[in-house]
TrEMBL record:
Pfam families: TPR_16. Keywords: Membrane, TPR repeat, Transmembrane, Transmembrane helix. It comes from Caulifigura coniformis. InterPro entries: TPR-like_helical_dom_sf, TPR_rpt. TPR repeats lie at residues 112-145. This is Tetratricopeptide repeat protein.
Length: 273
């Protein structure tokens, strides 16, 4: 009996059910995994605050329910809509050698293609000023290089240099209006909006949406109609956006749920027709 009692006192039963889940949560939020968890938490919080239309709910879930809220957000919200790219600080850490290889190739070979590759690599890790310089060097070699013009325009847009962005993007569209399957055209429309050229943006988006029904392009055009006091036209575009997303294959529709959510909210704000 004493031996049995000692065994009971000396050993703790393995947790099961809720206890096991709480035990795993403690492992994730303390010890060697704590650093990894904090990085993932910050990553998900930043992504949610910037992009998620339901950020008000999900931010609280992630902040209050550790680590299950973060894990749930990763699988339910981030994963379906992401391109599976790690955060920029991690890309910088992991891609240093590849970046240096492209820098050497640009210096030694020096063709427009090598400078574009370097610009793309720099842009992907957020070094926009350096990326812009690389694209400019590519354009010195080949002023009509579409990839360089697109890269330079995109960098200028992200740096909020909208006049330069408009010039570069317009040059791409003059050469190939369908370049990047409408991405250039959509960025050009957004540039016009940033420059408060709403009438030109509306004209461009009306043509754009006849060819490409990007959810964002439909939403932007609906916003313009709403601002112009045309709720019926805005509502029709937003309802079309929602139907397009709902009719898409699940893998595609998940990538556009942000725009679907924004469309629903804008519809609720529109005055009755």
């Amino acid at each position: 009996m004493p031996a049995f009692g000692s065994l009971i006192l000396g050993q703790m039963a393995e947790p099961t059910g809720i206890g096991w889940l709480l035990h795993q949560a403690a492992r994730w939020t303390s010890g060697p995994w704590a650093f990894v968890y904090v990085i993932v938490l910050i990553w998900m919080l930043a992504y949610c605050a910037k992009y998620d239309p339901d950020r008000g709910m999900w931010l609280w879930i992630m902040l209050l329910f550790h680590p299950f809220g973060t894990i749930a957000y990763f699988f339910i919200r981030w994963l379906p809509s992401s391109t599976l790219q790690p955060p920029k600080f991690l890309q910088r850490f992991l891609g240093g050698r590849e970046l240096e290889r492209k820098r050497i190739a640009a210096a030694q070979i020096g063709n427009a293609h090598q400078h574009v590759e370097l610009g793309d690599a720099l842009r992907e890790i957020g070094r926009l000023k350096e990326a812009g310089d690389a694209y400019d060097r590519a354009l010195e070699k080949d002023p009509k290089n579409l990839a360089a013009l697109w890269g330079a325009g995109l960098v200028a847009y992200r740096l909020e240099n909208y006049s330069t962005a408009r010039e570069k993007l317009a040059s791409v569209l003059e050469i190939d209006p369908s370049y990047k399957f409408g991405d250039v055209s959509l960025t050009y429309a957004n540039t016009l909006l940033k420059l408060n050229e709403n009438e030109a943006a509306q004209t461009h988006l009306e043509q754009h949406t006849k060819r490409w029904r990007h959810p964002e392009s439909l939403y932007r055009l609906a916003e313009i109609h709403a601002q112009n006091g045309e709720p019926k036209a805005a509502r029709e575009l937003l309802q079309g956006l929602i139907m397009d997303v709902d009719a898409s294959p699940k893998a595609i529709s998940r990538k556009f749920y942000f725009w679907k959510g924004r469309a629903k909210r804008l519809i609720r704000k529109l005055p009755a027709a």
